[in-house]
Amino acid sequence: MKIATAAYNLDWLDSWAQYEDKLAGWVAQAAGQGAQLLVFPEYGAMELSTLDGAEVAGDLERSIQAVSDRMEDVQNVHRRLATEYNLYILGASAPVNTGQGRPVNRAEFYSPNGDHDHQDKQIMTRFERDPWNIAPGGPLKLFDTALGKIGVLICYDSEFPLLGRALSEADLILVPSCTEALSGYWRVRIGAMSRALENQCVTVMSSLVGNNEWSEAVDMNTGMGGVFGPPDVGFPDTGVLAEGALNQPGWTYAEVDLDAIAHVRADGRVLNRTHWQEQEPRVQSVTNCCL
Questions:
Q1: pTM (two decimals)
Q2: Which domain holds residue 149?
Q3: In this protein, which residues make up the domain named CN hydrolase (predicted)?
Q4: Would the N or C end of the chain have less CB density within 10 A of its end CB?
C-alpha cells in the first residue's frame, strides 16, 4: 500500500467553502500519487475556529467550542472525499463535546465505503490538562480494514509503551501530532519509532506545522511527516521508511508491505513483539541491593 502523511499548516478561513476546497485539494493531491491511506495531524481542525472571527479564534475556550460545533459538517466532507477517491482518511483531530463533561481530543477514521469511527486521546499533556481542560476519551480501538489492522495513538499517547502494547495486533499505528517545540516533535517521533520496534509494525506520524498568531491554542507548531518500521529484515537499517522536511507543509509518502511486517514478526533478527511477555517475571523479581 501507499501511505501519505501530512505536515499540515493551518490557514485563516473566511468561508466554509474555503475549508472544503483546501481539504479537497490536499486529498486530491495524495490520491493523485496513488495513496490509499491519508493521515492528518492532531488539532488540525483548530483552523475552523477562524470561521467565527478573530475574537473567538483567539479565545481558548470559545475556540474549542466553535470547532466542536462544526464537527458534524467536517465528518460529512471527509466521508464524501474518502468515498470519492476510494481511500482511508484519518482526519485531523479536534476537541469534541460528547455531552459527558469536558471535550475529548478525537480523531475520526473514514473508510472508502462511507463508514467512519473515532479514536480518542488517552493521556493528556500538561497544557491539555491546564489550561485546556481536555478530558481523556474512550478506549483504544483496533480498526480492521482492507489495508490491515490499524490503531491510532494520538501524539502523547505514542510515548507510553503499554498503550502501544495494547495495539500489538496492529499492522499500522497512526500517530497524529501537534508539538510546539523541536524537542516535543522528537519526543513523539522517538515514541512512534519505539512502538514500531516493540510491536514490529509500521508507525505513521503526522505533524501540525507553522505559526498562527491568531490562536491561543495552536500558535506555534514544529514537525514533519514520517513513516517508521523496525530496523530489521525487510526494513531500512535506520527504521525510517520516509521523512519529510522540517516545518515544510505537504505530504510525505511511503510504500508499506504487509508481508514484510508479517515476515519480521515471524523471523526477524530479533522478536521483540513475541518476547515482550518475558519482561514480566523479570520485573517481578527485582530486589533491593546495597553496595
A1: 0.97
A2: 2-275
A3: 1-258
A4: C
Residue 136: asked if its preceding bond is cis (omega within 30°), the reply is no
Query: Has residue 52 been placed in a domain?
Result: yes
In tens, the pLDDT along 249-274 reads: 999 999 999 999 999 999 999 999 99
pLDDT in tens, 141-200: 999 999 999 999 999 999 999 999 999 999 999 999 999 999 999 999 999 999 999 999
Q: Which three cell numbers stand for residue 75?
A: 465528518
248 inside domain: yes
Using one digit for the tens of pLDDT, what is the confidence trace for 39-71?
999 999 999 999 999 999 999 999 999 999 999
For the chain, how many structural domains are there in total?
1
Any domain includes 284: no
194-224 residue pLDDT tens: 999 999 999 999 999 999 999 989 999 999 9
Residue 241 in domain: yes
Reduce the secondary structure of the chain to three states and give it as a string. CEEEEEEEECCCCCCHHHHHHHHHHHHHHHHHCCCCEEECCCCHHHHHHHHHCHHHHCCHHHHHHHHHHCHHHHHHHHHHHHHHHCCEEECCCEEECCCCCCCEEEEEEECCCCCEEEEECCCCCHHHHHHHCCECCCCCCEEEECCEEEEECCHHHHHCHHHHHHCCCCCEEEEEECCCCHHHHHHHHHHHHHHHHHHCCEEEEEEEEEECCCCCCCCEECCCCEEECCCCCCCCCCCEEEECCCCCCEEEEEECCHHHHHHHHHHCCCCHHHHHHHHHHHHHCCCCCCC
Please list, in sequence order, all residues whose beta carbon lies within 8 angstroms of the beta carbon of residue 147, skipping any fewer than 6 positions away.
1, 36, 37, 88, 171, 172, 258
